[in-house]
Amino acid sequence: MQATQSERKEQRSQKRGRERILSPFPVLVIVLIGVLFGASASIFVRFSTAPALVLAAYRKTIVTFLLLPAVLLKFREELLHLEKKTLAWCALSGCFLGIHFLTYFLAVQNTSIVATHVLGNTEVLFTAAFMFFTGKEQFREQGILGIGIAIAGGLLVAWSGHNGESRMFGNLCGLGAAVTLAAYSLVGAKVRKNCSTTVYTFLVYGVSALFLDLLVPLAGYSWVGYEPINLLTAFCMAVLCSLMGHSVFNWALKYLSPTVISMARLTSPVLAALLAFLLLRELPSWNQLLGGVIVLCGLYLYIQSKRQPAAAVQS
After folding, report:
1. Which partner from 11, 24, 97, 225 sits 20 to 30 angstroms from 126, CA to CA?
2. Cα 257 from chain centroid?
3. What mean pLDDT do residues 244-256 have?
């Protein structure tokens, strides 16, 4: 019995070792695919009719129940033996995530899709600033230049949203979504070292669902009485955007810096603009196309600056 347990521990240790040496490039490709699924959330919100808070609560509640069987069958032992400190960090992360989805949905309903994604992706500014001022990351000039170029390109895209019209409330909600997403990513980078992707995802999704569910009646809304399309769009967002999109970011935090993931998310305005054109017939202007190219160039510069110091350390 003891020998079997030792073998299992050794296998888990070997598995973790294989995970640590996973190359950053394939992880980044998977993250970009997740960004595409995440960008589709704005389309589903546009097809919905329920209030943003109710829709966000639907989405997080559905995805939590979808994850529940896998957690109970395969990760129950890990879940039961988590430290209280880890659970507390997961609870904090889940609250940030709940506020992020609420402000994101409000932004989509009150301003353009492109502007929502651009403002939401200013998360990189808050993430990078925290990592820099706490001494956890050092940025080369090329990296700072890449961040600046990407943000400039994003602003160019936002300037052309809705033919130049500005909706202050929606834009402020987009900025709030960026701040809370940055906080969520930073907390997640800390917690993911102590638990698996599935358990962490289940806990933060569950907390965010509970947080939003409690806000629904407090805000004066009802849980029922909305058109069936809202349950359908919430289910699609739970499967495509959360399980196949957002959860990828949780997994990638084990291999990539939160700032790198934040920079990868900067491509979402380009992907969202493409989806809006294909599904909603919103034609991107030349400003959106040019801004998208600039964002990708900034992303390339920043990732290159991150790889150079890593190579120097290994040598």
Report:
1. 24
2. 13
3. 79
Q: Which residue has the tokens 């409690």?
A: 214
Question: Which two tokens mark 7?
Answer: 């073998």
Give the C-alpha separation, 259 to 257, whole Å: 5
Report yes or no: 249 and 185 within 8 Å, Cβ to Cβ: yes
Residue 117 pLDDT > 80 = yes
Residue 22 has a pLDDT of: 65
What's the pLDDT band for 27 if we cut at 50, 70, 90? confident
CA distance 311 to 109: 44
Residue ranges per domain, the chain?
A: 49-307
Helix (H, G, I), strand (E, B) or coil at 123: helix
Tokens 């994850």 belong to: 67
Structure tokens at 282: 């919103």
The neighbour count for residue 80, using CB atoms within 10 Å, is 7
Q: Among the residues of 21-51, which ranges form H helices?
A: 24-39, 41-47
Residue 164 burial (CB count, 10 A): 9
pLDDT at 259: 67
Whether 233 contacts 45, CB under 8 Å: yes
* CA–CA dist 92, 97 (Å, integer): 9
CA distances from 63 to 12, 171, 203 (A): 28, 27, 11
Residue 190 CB contacts under 8 Å (≥ 6 apart), including other chains: 89
Whole-model pTM: value is 0.78
Could you give the dihedral angle defined by the CA atoms of residues 88, 90, 96 and 102, in that order, rounded to the nearest 10 degrees? -120
